[in-house]
Amino acid sequence: MLTQVTTNASLQARKNAACAQGIGTLTPHFTARADNAELWDVEGRRFVDFASGIATLATGHRHPRIVAAVRAQLDDFHHTCFHVTPYEEYVALCEQLNRVVPGPSAKKSALFTTGAEAIENAMKVARAATGRSGVVAFSGAFHGRTFMGMALTGKVAPYKAGFGPMPGDVWHVPFPAAPLGVTVDDSIAALDRLFKTDVDPQRVAAIVIELVQGEGGFYVAPPALMEHLRAECDRHGILLVVDEIQTGFGRTGKLFALEHYGIEADLVTTAKSLAGGFPLSALTGRAELMDATRVGSLGGTYAGNPLAVAAALETMRVIEDEGLVARARMLGERLRACLAALRTEVPRICDVRGLGAMVAVEFRDPHSGEPDAEFTKRVHAAGLERGLLLLTCGVHGNVVRFLFPLTIPEAVFEEGLGLLAESIRAANV
């Protein structure tokens, strides 16, 4: 009897038949196994992973210490629901987050499952603590696919299109981005105008911002903007909510991107690399704010799952023990140097930006200056053809962002840089 051979094509056909169309996939390659910064598909094809599950794997695929921590937890128990019978590990992780999230204020934390849940609960806490309803976010932002997450997100397609009215009292101002022609002064003026013409700042509970926009194109919030937002929040009694879901845990060359700015946020959301790829998120904030909601109003059945919590506690030890924060700075510098060298021969490279290892390259037509999404697609396709996994982003789809594991072996990183240069040159032909 013949055994059916599993191929990418056969799995793609099954996916198309069984899975909802709205669940998109970036590549037609189905993963069979992975190790650190390498992936193999079901046909044995190897890839250098410069995506790491959209920034969830700062510590790489299957870090042995994290795998061991999860296995040890599995031998004890894998789920009770913290609301029913609590467990020490949840408390220990909250204590650790309270220590490491930047700022001198006394803090408390709550654990959830996804980044979107962390954002949703940040809005609940902000509204409960202030007694206000309004929220201000930024163009190009991505804060999740739940309805409040979509409302805060500053990008229509594919996130908001076709889903009808968004939750009310959510407002947007432009995010500073030189390639998009938006300056810090433009953003500050837009916020000032918003408060004068559309919403009373005394009705605003929170201003929500990513310090490096993820889906929006890896534009970095300028220090002058953050200083202004902190001052405006203090002036009007608004809470400053910083979304560190993608930037957190070493990616930017600091444990948190906030450390680049020297200010304190009132609430901070984390997820992605918090638990080394296991589903876990957190909301950490000033203790008096976190205690503003009623008992039982925060949480969820799977929130703070014991396996994910065990992974998170070990992930934070690995980041410290292996010096991954410093390594992010070093890897980012080398990636920037690679891209800078390519600018002389590839005029479509209009900008290279980022913090630490959270780097992006933006492509535009050198003659018209228009965003070049087609060229970006060619770079992505050329990378895939050569065995390099890349991610695109940006409101115009003309940016490649780099999110390789911070544990990536030296030889694999050098190989990846070589494949990246080849891919950009191939797209430029």
In short:
This protein has 429 residues and is α/β, with parallel strands linked by helices. 38% of the residues lie in helices and 17% in strands. It contains 13 helices and 15 strands.
Describe the structure.
The chain is α/β, with parallel strands linked by helices and 429 residues long. It has helices at 8-18, 52-55, 64-76, 88-100, 115-130, 147-152, 184-197, 223-236, 287-290, 306-321, 324-343, 373-386, 410-428, and strands at residues 31-35, 38-41, 46-49, 107-112, 134-138, 170-173, 204-210, 239-243, 267-270, 281-286, 349-355, 358-363, 388-389, 391-393, 399-402. The strands form three sheets. A seven-stranded mixed sheet has the order 4-10-9-8-7-5-6, with helices on both faces. It has a four-stranded mixed sheet with strand order 1-2-3-13. A hairpin with a 4-residue loop joins β2 (38-41) and β3 (46-49). The longest helix is centred in the last third of the chain and has 20 residues, at 324-343. The model has no long low-confidence stretch (mean pLDDT 96).
